[in-house]
Structures are given as C-alpha cells and as structure tokens.
Amino acid sequence: MSENPSDSHTGNGAHNLGFMLGSMWAEFKSIVERISASPDVRVVILSSALERYFTAGLELTPAFSFIDDSSHFDVARKAFILRQYVVVSSSPNFPVIAAVFGGTVGLAVDIASACDIRLAASDTIFAISEVNVGLAADIGSLQRLPKIVGNDSKARELALTGRRFGAVEARDMGFVSDIVQGGRNEVIAAAIELGKVIAQKSPVAVVGTKHLMNHARDHTVEEGLDYTATWNMGMLQSSDTSTAMKAALSKQTAIFAPLSAPKQYYPKGKL
C-alpha cells in the first residue's frame, strides 16, 4: 500500500482448502521482496484470496517429499530454506498488517505472528497444529507467540495441545489487535482503512518506529533508549519533521517524499 494505495498481488500456490503448496513459498517470498524494493510502498496488507481459509497450513505431502528427497540439500539446509520463506514477512522496513479469517492453522499462525499488526475476522479459528502431526512448530510460532502475548503459560498450552481457539480468545491474550465482525471481505476492508492511516504518516517516522520497537523487543529499556537517541540523530536530518509541522500549523495533509528514490533516478553504477 502506497500513500495512494492501488496495488495488489495475489499468490496462486494454494488449493481449495487453503494449504500452502511448494510453488507458493517461492512466490510469496518473491512478492514481498519485489514490493520491498519499491520506494512508494508504505504498508502491506497480507491476506488470502480464498473465501473460507486464510490458510490451512503447509501441504504435508509435498513438504515431506521435500524433506525426504535425497536430491535436495541436507535436512538442516532444508529447514533453513523453509524458515526464510516465513521470516520474509517480518523483513520489510514498512509495517505488515495481517488480515486473517476462517481457518488460520499451523503455518498461518507462523506467518501472522511475523507480521506487525494482526486483525481477525469474527469467524477466525486459530490452531498451532503442528504437534497434531508429530512436529514441533519450527517456523516462528514458538519463538514469537510468547513474546507477543506476554503469557508463557498460555502460549505453551496452545502449542502443546494443538487445540483450536477463536478470535475472542486471540484478542483477549493480545495476539490480535481487534476483531472485525464478518469474514474475509470485512477484515480486509478494515485492514485497508488502518493501512491508509499509517500510509499518511512520515515514512521516516514509520520505518523508525517499527525498527526501534523490534530492537526494544530483544533489548533492555536502557539499551533501547540509547539506541533510539542515536537513531534519531540521523533521522531528524530528514525533511519529514518540518513537513509534518508545517502541515499541522496550516491544517493541511502533509505530503511526504518517498523513503528512497528508485534506481532509475541514480546515475548508472551509483547505487
């Protein structure tokens, strides 16, 4: 989503039950990397084109074939490859909003937990279901969920039982910001409206806020304050602060420059 959002990308790697197939892994990563390179993107809305499922998780047959196939890399390298496809959800500088609905199971929880903000339709059913097929969730849920919800006991219960939980329970424990009444269309519309608000803000401030909050998650308060002071020494040299102040004084909407210019604006070999 740019300041004037109009772009969308639809992946084609999921079948009618919403399982993520091998082809979608690469496509998902490619889409995120492509929009990450655009200086005009301010926010990304991550959802599904399916009606009943955000995603039902990883398709087990091709997944196990990938693991068992001796022509591929060894097991450790395969696991690294799979993790990178999900880590890409959290890698962009700009915020990623997950709009989840319906079945949001297994891998879907990994993906949603890697996003910055999560909105859930009222019909959403979550499950950290890997334990039900003899696996420990290995692509982010076990690492991110306890930090997100701040309740280690609850996170362990859900991961160890693999039981389903609904949107209300997810909101009550802090996994999602809000519940949107309805299903797919309603939660995507709500995510777009939220994205529009963020997209109107200074991209320097938005990128800085996300970066500093990510840093604070894994550092002490004192370390975070010191790092923020250093960060702002550089960021305050941008024009965004004065642009925002002038717009506030004139009661007009601020128009901010893109975060960085696309490559064609640079002389060849200078970027």
Task: Note the main attributes of this structure.
single chain, 271 residues, alpha/beta, 2-enoyl-CoA Hydratase, Chain A, domain 1, Lyase 2-enoyl-coa Hydratase, Chain  A, domain 2, four-stranded parallel β-sheet, four-stranded mixed β-sheet, disordered C terminus
Quick one: CATH class of the largest domain?
Alpha Beta
The share of residues in extended strands comes to 5-15%
Q: What is the CATH superfamily classification of the largest domain?
A: 2-enoyl-CoA Hydratase, Chain A, domain 1
Major beta-sheet overview:
4 strands, parallel
Roughly how many Å apart are the termini?
25 Å
Query: Any idea what the radius of gyration is?
Result: 20 Å
Q: Assign a percent range to the helix content.
A: 40-55%
Give me the side-by-side strand order of the main sheet.
2-5-7-10
State the helix count.
11
Low-confidence stretches: 10-21, 261-271
Q: If classified by CATH, what would the architecture of the largest domain be?
A: Alpha-Beta Complex
Task: Give the mean pLDDT.
Answer: 81
CATH topology of the largest domain, by name, is: 2-enoyl-CoA Hydratase, Chain A, domain 1
Element string (H = helix, E = strand): EHEEEHHEEHEEHHEHEHHHH
Task: Give your account of this protein's structure.
There is one protein chain. This protein is of the alpha/beta class. The protein folds into 2 domains: 19-199, 2-enoyl-CoA Hydratase, Chain A, domain 1, CATH 3.90.226; 203-265, Lyase 2-enoyl-coa Hydratase, Chain  A, domain 2. The chain is 46% helix and 12% strand. The protein has helices at residues 22-36, 60-68, 75-87, 107-113, 141-149, 152-161, 167-172, 184-199, 203-217, 221-235, 240-250, and strands spanning 19-20, 44-46, 53-55, 57-58, 96-100, 103-105, 117-121, 125-127, 164-166, 178-180. Strands 2-5-7-10 form a 4-stranded parallel β-sheet. Strands 3-6-8-9 form a 4-stranded mixed β-sheet. Strands 1-4 form a two-stranded parallel ribbon. Helix 1 packs across helix 3, helix 4 (107-113) packs across helix 5 (141-149) and helix 5 runs antiparallel to helix 6.
